[in-house]
């Protein structure tokens, strides 16, 4: 396969955008194909095919619960990670609306959290308060404590940042939040790092760990004051609505289970490769800043910003050479708004490149990327008239 | 330096600058490229202002100063209300 420019397609080992979407795990593919035939029926029906589907769904829920160390009835499957985030944040806010309608969140949350907050403000008269982060993107725990001197309905904090990979210290957040329920957006980290207990609700997304797209996971802690923010039905799960996607849920569960089994090996390999990228980029590309916490980070993700470069131009030029990466820069996007994550960290917002390794990325793939990158950046700088 | 050779003061008490770069209408990263290409036009110790609507400049001018070891003096507004970022050349 080739892309429009005739270069090798980026579906192979040049694909370095796992943080946007991890390719389907072989275990997920196998489960999905089997369940397409055996899990199509309505799990509510009392006939044999319905019971088959129900069994697969219950199994998927049990596997995800066991992988995440939670109870089966704390797990809901949603139609996306974003839907799980919306339900998690808004459900906690509804549950405590009599105490406060205020959402406190880190300034570097995923846009799904910010959108939930905006909607809450507009539709329910609530307020939102972002809390600042340091240069690495770590939540300023003192600032969180200050923000919580006034009552809040919920605190929303990510386990790890999706753009720069920095891990938040959730134990510190839980301690600082006190009685205020905490929502954790665990989309970037699930399957890669443990989710420590202390949250009242949390969310994850299957396509980030090698499951299919269109499966989110909402976790609601038993006993948490969570109230459904949207209409529900009387199907298998009181928190969500609609006909369950049984095959996809099962595939998501299979992928998560397989990921956890290979996690330690993968973690060590990816960490070493990312360390190599961090060192080599800093050494071979002039005027570059590697951003995000160098140690307390996701294993597979590294982000750097190159001065004088349009991030989208880097993405395009690397794509021509067979590499797929993401950029938090939006110099030519219609909004022109820089990434709120990079902005909150106080780092360069242009020339941003995010490299995230899949479970198949090899040392050779990384090496080829590192050989190509300095020339690409130099070429774009020369074209832009940098003296 | 402006025509009269005097330091220009931004309106409303915003920081003065010895040279002003008009980057109105430019998209990122052009204002920062202009800044880098023209910092040599002022002497060490003098300052230079970047006038730009580009929202990325608010983050990127201070970030450039940090990465290039120059001093970020602060933000003001030009006469027409466009943000104006002042940098002092340190080296």
List the topology elements.
The complex is a heterodimer of chains A (387) and B (91).
Chain A: H1 26-38, H2 48-68, E1 75-78, H3 81-95, E2 102-106, H4 111-124, E3 127-131, H5 141-147, E4 154-158, H6 170-177, E5 182-185, E6 201-205, E7 216-220, H7 246-284, E8 288-291, E9 301-306, H8 311-320, H9 340-345, E10 352-356, H10 363-383
Parallel strand pairs in A: 2-3, 2-4, 4-5, 5-6
Antiparallel strand pairs in A: 1-7, 6-7, 8-9, 9-10
Helix pairs in contact in A: 1-7, 2-7, 3-4, 5-6, 7-10, 8-10
Chain B: E1 19-22, H1 30-38, E2 47-51, H2 57-67, E3 71-77, E4 83-88
Parallel strand pairs in B: 1-2
Antiparallel strand pairs in B: 2-4, 3-4
Cofactor (chain A): pyridoxal 5'-phosphate
Organism (chain A): Nocardioides jiangsuensis
Catalytic activity (chain A): (sulfur carrier)-H + L-cysteine = (sulfur carrier)-SH + L-alanine
Instruction: Bin the helical content of chain B.
Output: 10-25%
Oligomer: heterodimer
* Model regions low in confidence, pLDDT < 50 over at least 5 residues of chain A: 1-11
Shape of chain B: globular
Order of helices and strands of chain B: EHEHEE
Class per helix and strand makeup of chain A:
alpha/beta
CATH-defined superfamily of the domain at 263-383 in chain A? Aspartate Aminotransferase, domain 1
Helix count from the secondary structure assignment of chain B: 2
Distance between the termini of chain A: 39 Å
Q: What is CATH's topology name of the domain at 263-383 in chain A?
A: Aspartate Aminotransferase, domain 1
Sheet-strand content of chain B, in percent, reads 15-25%
| Basic shape of chain A | globular
- Counting DSSP E segments of at least 2 residues, the number of strands of chain B comes to 4
Number of domains of chain B: 1
The main pleated sheet of chain A reads as: 7 strands, mixed
Give the tally of β-strands of chain A: 10
Question: What letter string, H or E per element, gives the SSE order of chain A?
Answer: HHEHEHEHEHEEEHEEHHEH
**Tell me, what is the CATH class of chain B?**
Alpha Beta
If you average the pLDDT of chain B, what whole number results? 88
Query: Unreliable stretches of chain B, pLDDT < 50, 5 or more residues?
Result: 1-7
**Most residues in contact, chain pair and counts:** A-B, 25 and 19 residues
């Amino acid at each position: 396969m080739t892309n429009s420019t005739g270069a090798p397609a980026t579906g192979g080992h040049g694909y370095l955008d796992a943080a946007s979407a991890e390719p389907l795990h072989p275990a997920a593919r196998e489960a999905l194909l089997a369940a397409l035939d055996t899990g199509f029926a309505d799990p509510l029906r009392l006939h044999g095919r319905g019971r088959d589907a129900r069994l697969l769904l219950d199994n998927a829920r049990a596997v995800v619960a066991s992988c995440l160390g939670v109870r089966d009835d704390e797990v809901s499957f949603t139609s996306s990670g974003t839907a799980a985030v919306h339900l998690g944040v808004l459900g906690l806010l509804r549950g405590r609306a009599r105490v406060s309608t205020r959402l406190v969140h880190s300034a570097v949350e995923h846009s799904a959290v910010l959108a939930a907050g905006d909607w809450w403000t507009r539709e329910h008269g609530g307020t939102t308060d972002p809390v600042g982060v340091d240069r690495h993107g770590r939540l300023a725990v003192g600032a969180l404590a200050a923000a919580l001197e006034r009552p809040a309905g919920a605190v929303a904090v990510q386990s790890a940042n999706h753009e720069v990979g920095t891990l938040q210290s959730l134990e510190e957040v839980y301690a600082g939040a006190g009685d205020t329920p905490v929502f954790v957006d665990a989309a970037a980290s699930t399957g890669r790092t443990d989710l420590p207990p202390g949250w009242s609700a949390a969310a994850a997304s299957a396509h980030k760990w090698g499951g299919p797209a269109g499966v989110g996971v909402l976790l609601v802690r038993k006993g948490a004051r969570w109230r459904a923010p949207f209409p529900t039905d009387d199907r298998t799960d009181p928190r969500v609505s609609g006909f369950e996607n049984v095959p996809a849920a099962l595939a998501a569960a299979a992928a998560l289970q397989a990921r956890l089994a290979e996690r330690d090996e993968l973690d060590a390999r990816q960490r070493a490769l990312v360390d190599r990228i961090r060192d080599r980029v800093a050494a071979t590309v002039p005027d570059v800043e590697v951003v995000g916490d160098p140690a307390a980070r996701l294993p597979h993700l590294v982000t750097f910003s190159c001065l004088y470069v349009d991030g989208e131009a880097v993405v395009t030029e690397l794509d021509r050479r067979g590499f797929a990466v993401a950029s938090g820069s939006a110099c030519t996007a219609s909004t022109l708004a820089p990434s709120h994550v990079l902005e909150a960290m106080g780092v360069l917002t242009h020339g941003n490149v995010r490299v995230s390794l899949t479970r198949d990325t090899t040392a050779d793939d990384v090496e080829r990327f590192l050989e190509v990158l300095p020339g690409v950046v130099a070429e774009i700088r020369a074209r832009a008239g940098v003296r | 330096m402006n025509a009269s050779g005097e330091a220009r003061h931004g309106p409303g008490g915003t920081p003065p600058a010895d040279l002003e770069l008009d980057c109105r209408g430019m998209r990122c990263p052009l204002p920062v490229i202009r800044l880098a290409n023209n910092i040599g036009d002022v002497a060490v110790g003098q300052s230079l202002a970047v006038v730009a609507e580009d929202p990325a400049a608010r983050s990127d001018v201070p970030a450039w100063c940090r990465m290039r070891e120059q001093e970020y003096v602060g933000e003001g507004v030009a006469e027409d209300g466009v943000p104006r970022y002042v940098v002092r050349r340190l080296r």
